[in-house]
Amino acid sequence: MKSSDNMEQVEQRLVTIQKQIHEACEKVNRSSDDITLIAVTKQVSSARAQSLLDVGIKDLGENRLEGLLEKQETIEDPVNWHFIGNLQTRKVKELVDTIDCLHSLDRMSLAKEVHKRASKPLDCFVQVNVSGEESKSGITPDEVDVFFDQLAAYENIHVIGLMTMAPNTDDESIVRNTFRSLRKLRDKIAAKGLSYAPCTKLSMGMSNDFTIAIEEGATHIRIGTALAGSESEETE
């Protein structure tokens, strides 16, 4: 597939998603300006990631250190880099000063290592396993208060919000309740007025459920294939 054809497809997908964002915001009387669209590029090449930047995307998300560093080596455009995957403590030193935001702070050992290795405070989302699924990472809702109290000791951790993933189900009520529960937890922490954890943001919603997430208060949505497409398009 020619690069121009690929660019047209990327633009079409972006227009569709922006329309969906706008409609979801209108439904609950929000401004689409409040939504940060993160293009998740974990399964695509640097060239395809570049095509997203070429159509106006400014935020890219990766879930593997290797994929992130590879793209950072080849992409010269300004990018807000988000790390959205599970982060091994031993890899923090390679990652921490290369990203703008960590979406998966889920344990004190990770907070301690980020604090130790970061040259300046790093914006973080605390990951909460609202659904209770064993396959998902994150602290439990019952652990949130204590976890935030402990984070006060680490000045290089700046918690801007909470993050979660909803169950993969067609039952909209389950998805909506998951996002709603995270918003209530966010509001509870935000009300404390913690200087190191203003916690005003919500990272939730992916390709299959981002409109519901927006209706329930998401400020950051993480869109992969629905926006970036797949590498197979290159050879079609």
Q: How would you sum up this structure, described in words?
A:
The protein has helices spanning 3-27, 46-54, 65-74, 92-95, 108-117, 144-151, 172-190, 210-215, 225-228, and strands at 36-40, 59-62, 80-83, 101-105, 122-127, 157-163, 201-203, 220-223. α4 (92-95) links the parallel β3 (80-83) and β4 (101-105). It has an 8-stranded parallel beta sheet. The relative contact order is 0.16. The chain has 236 residues and is of the alpha/beta class. The model has no long low-confidence stretch (mean pLDDT 93). It is globular and about 50 Å long.
Task: Give the SSE layout.
Elements: H1 3-27, E1 36-40, H2 46-54, E2 59-62, H3 65-74, E3 80-83, H4 92-95, E4 101-105, H5 108-117, E5 122-127, H6 144-151, E6 157-163, H7 172-190, E7 201-203, H8 210-215, E8 220-223, H9 225-228
Give the helix/strand class: alpha/beta
Low-confidence stretches: none
What would you call the quaternary organization?
single chain
- Beginning-to-end CA distance, first to last residue: 6 Å
Rg, Cα atoms, Å: 18 Å
- By DSSP, the count of extended strands is 8
Spatial order of the strands forming the largest sheet = 7-6-5-4-3-2-1-8
Secondary structure tally, helices: 9
- Proportion of helical residues: 40-55%
Beta-strand content bin: 15-25%
Net shape:
globular
User: Taking all residues together, what is the mean pLDDT?
Assistant: 93
SSE topology string = HEHEHEHEHEHEHEHEH
Largest sheet: 8 strands, parallel
